[in-house]
Write a structure and sequence with these properties.
By secondary structure, this protein is of the alpha+beta class. It has one domain. It contains two helices and five strands; from the N terminus they run αβββββα. Strands 1, 2, 3, 4 and 5 form a five-stranded antiparallel β-sheet that branches. The longest helix has 18 residues. The relative contact order is 0.13. Bound molecules: zinc ion. Zinc ion binds next to loops.
Amino acid sequence: MNAPTEHPRWCDRKTCDRLGVHASRVLPVNTGRTEETVLDVALVQSWLPASEPQLSMTVIDGVDFEQVLMSLGQGRVLAHRLRQLLDDAKGGAK
Ligand SMILES: [Zn+2]
């Protein structure tokens, strides 16, 4: 597939050219502490016409890694659910 002539505003052209999909800069989920897993998130979108942006979450656990793609709608619900769980976690013992 030929590279597109137009790119989403969030597209990082170097990554886009390298991967063959529109891709944003990668945002690390970094707490500043040593964690069991390394997470990062980014936006990706196929070069196919009429494709929609998706959220990419990459989980690196030692030598294993997994990429999960989700729709923006799922990402919004996930953000809400995470806030709910984080609020629950503040509650302490019952
Ligand atoms: Zn692009």
